Amino acid sequence: MAINQKQVLSLQQKLSPQQIQMIKLLELPAVQLEQRIKQEIEDNIVLEEEERSSEDDEQPQQISVDEYLHDDDTPSYKSRINNFSKDDKQRPVYLTEGRSLQEYLIEQLRYRNLSERDMRLAVYLVGSIDEDGYLRRDLESVADDIAFTVGVETTAAELERLLNVIHELEPAGIGARDLRECLLLQMAQMPINTRPRRLARKILTNYFDEFVKKHYEKLMARLQISEDDFRDAIAEIRHLSPKPGNLYAEGGTDTTPYIIPDFILDYQDGRFTLSLNSYNVPEVRVNRRYMEMIREMVGSDGRVRDKDKEAIQFVKSKIDSAKWFISAIKQRHDTLMRTMQTILDYQEEYFKDGDKSKLRPMILKDIADRTGLDVSTISRVVNSKYVQTQFGIILLKSLFSEAMQTDSGEEVSSYEIKNILQECIDEEDKRRPLTDETLMDILNSKGYRIARRTVAKYREMLGIPVARLRKQI
């Protein structure tokens, strides 16, 4: 084939480095933004943290003790105390955490007189137990991992024997592979000296599936027991813990998530005050020393020596990157404030007292149309962002809800329907819980046009099980 040239006109859309950086910064919540800025300061030599100027940083006025003693006849040496000699060294205070669950289990294993091989395998099994106290991997896979990582050939039967040893440790139920085994292990460490406990163990051993599915009438018929006896047995089972790992706590690492709000909203005297939470976010600037360095390298005639060209090019690229980063942070601040202010204007009645019934139906497009921003930008802004209000810290994403239409044509938020569902289920007869179809009829009678599948969707969003699993005796 002949080689020829031709001119082609094409239209392509590309994001600039600054746009990419802005998109990434926009998604970050306050905590991650602080880490991202500190990382950029470490990577870019021309960026530096700007010191905050505050009146609170001023040194407190030094007050002499003599001012309080000038009218007293107490000798000056009695106003001083020194219990240390000049040879004493100040000793640091060490803060230690308590043992973790795995360390606690390994300590118990040391009292079991296991061989060196069994101890290594048992320690590996303990390391495979998750924070809930379960061993959720099959023993064949654990045996393969031990062969690759530890270099010890073992079998599932040998691991089963060592797992039985772990099952005898505290807390009760540790190392179970499923809920049924967990509950039975806890009962095995209890004295079975009452009729309800004997019935509870029999239910967990022989009728666990029926118990989980709450087929209570079928269970009572098979066990040939009265409703009172069955209720006592169920009470014994409910005293057991489904997560044995939570039964142990000795000052270990705290896994409770801390939420740092991105916005602070104050409401006083009928007026809102909105601000961006930037307390821990460092302020950055370009180090002037590098700007002066470039000026020194450039001669009075504007020419650069050959040996300085590479250095100037390097510093200039770092300065440009720093300016882009600072500009992206400023643009992030403006976009977040602009979006949050629009949400505040849209849901003003809700933010006054936090009554969810006052939430207006709102989707991302509503805010995008009012701000002039793209829907994807609004989605990035509200993702993982929180606002602190006088009635609590609110996830921005939770403020968005679908619109439902009533018989009168009025649009209401889906939160209103969820509240009615919650009230209906809270007030239902637990012996005969309301089905989704019955809930649909109740909502339709109140003027809400809703289908049964929509009722099921909202019920699942509220974390409420189906009617059969809500049944109680």
Automatic annotation (TrEMBL):
Is S-adenosyl-L-methionine given among the entry's keywords? no
- Which PROSITE patterns does this chain map to? SIGMA54_2, SIGMA54_3
Show the GO MF annotations: DNA binding; DNA-binding transcription activator activity; nucleotidyltransferase activity; sigma factor activity
Note the InterPro entries from the entry: RNA_pol_sigma_54, RNA_pol_sigma_54_core-bd, RNA_pol_sigma_54_DNA-bd, RpoN_core-bd_sf
**Which portions of the chain have biased composition (kind: Acidic residues)?**
48-59
The chain positions of domain RNA polymerase sigma factor 54 core-binding read 96-290
- List the record's Gene Ontology CC terms alphabetically: DNA-directed RNA polymerase complex
Write down the superkingdom of origin: Bacteria
Q: Where is this region: Disordered?
A: 48-83
Q: Which residues form the RNA polymerase sigma factor 54 DNA-binding domain?
A: 313-472
Enumerate the Gene Ontology biological process terms: DNA-templated transcription initiation
Record keywords, A-Z: DNA-binding, DNA-directed RNA polymerase, Nucleotidyltransferase, Sigma factor, Transcription, Transcription regulation, Transferase
Keyword Hydrolase: yes or no?
A: no
Similarity field: Belongs to the sigma-54 factor family.
Its name, as the record gives it, is RNA polymerase, sigma 54 subunit, RpoN/SigL
Q: What is the lineage of its organism?
A: Bacteria, Pseudomonadati, Bacteroidota, Bacteroidia, Bacteroidales
